[in-house]
Amino acid sequence: AQSVAQPEDQVKVAEGNPLTVKCTYSVSGNPYLFWYVQYPNRGLQFLLKYITGDNLVKGSYGFEAEFNKSQTSFHLKKPSALVSDSALYFCAVRDSREYGGATNKLIFGTGTLLAVQP
Amino acid sequence: GAGVSQSPSNKVTEKGKDVELRCDPISGHTALYWYRQSLGQGLEFLIYFQGNSAPDKSGLPSDRFSAERTGGSVSTLTIQRTQQEDSAVYLCASSHGQVSFGNTIYFGEGSWLTVV
After folding, report:
1. Which residues on chain B are in Cβ contact (under 8 Å) with A107?
2. Where are the alpha helices (DSSP H) in chain A?
3. Rounded to an integer, what distance in angstroms lies between the CA atom of residue A77 and that of residue A22?
4. I need a surface site. Which of A44, A114, B28, B95 has the fewest CB within 10 A?
5. Residue of B nearest to A38 (CA)
């Protein structure tokens, strides 16, 4: 079965320091990977995605993510964190059928709460 | 509109009552999704509509849940005989094309449902 794991429930970082939010995946076939952010009492906002091509993907608000096929990871990064980056971050992967072929569902991780301290 | 619009934003209902949640997708988006977000279950897929194709209902948790999409645009998620475990945020999303081809899903703000 397809799955995505976010091993850290919470990440704390000081403002101005680099941040990393981890995501690993398990899929059959080529992974399509997504990052979303959720601010308090809001819906999910799209940050970036990896479909194919360069392993380093750049997205909104200065975020980027690196696709690593050998480690089956897609960690979210930002060189310098802002207090306003504090939010819940979700990694997601396109689901696939067990007998092959993609579906139109996204499977989400459990989320990582990022706290950026001033 | 500019984004996915959902209503109501908040709904408190009594156990056993029926509720309807509405979603207006981004103009021109052919695909529409419903997800549920709850504390214990995270983000769960409920149902997917694509154009005039039969919807993928594989995520609906019980026959008390149903959804329809009229005219290929607005969608309504109906929960009959609500139970306390139905309390959650119901998120609607839409995309210009299919996620299976790598298209991006854009979410609305959600409808917060509380069953008392």
Report:
1. 45
2. none
3. 9
4. B28
5. B109
Report angle CA A60, B8, B88 to the nearest 5 degrees: 75
CA distances from B65 to A80, B5, B80 (A): 44, 20, 7
The whole-angstrom distance between B66's CA and the closest CA on chain A is: 18
What value does the mean pLDDT take over residues B14-24?
Answer: 97
What mean pLDDT do residues B34-38 have?
96
DSSP state string for B41-80: TEEEEEEEEETTSPPB-TT--STTEEEEESTTS-EEEEE-
Asked whether the beta carbons of residue B59 and residue A32 sit closer than 8 angstroms, the reply is no
Q: Does A88 touch chain B (CB under 8 A)?
A: no
Contact at CB, B109 and A105, closer than 8 angstroms: no
Mutation test of the interface with chain B: which of A91, A103, A105, choosing the one with the most B Cβ atoms within 10 A?
Answer: A105
Distance of CA A25 to the CA centre of its chain: 10
Tokens coding A101:
């072929």
Q: Which of B49, B33, B23, B114 lies closest to A36 in space, CA to CA?
A: B33
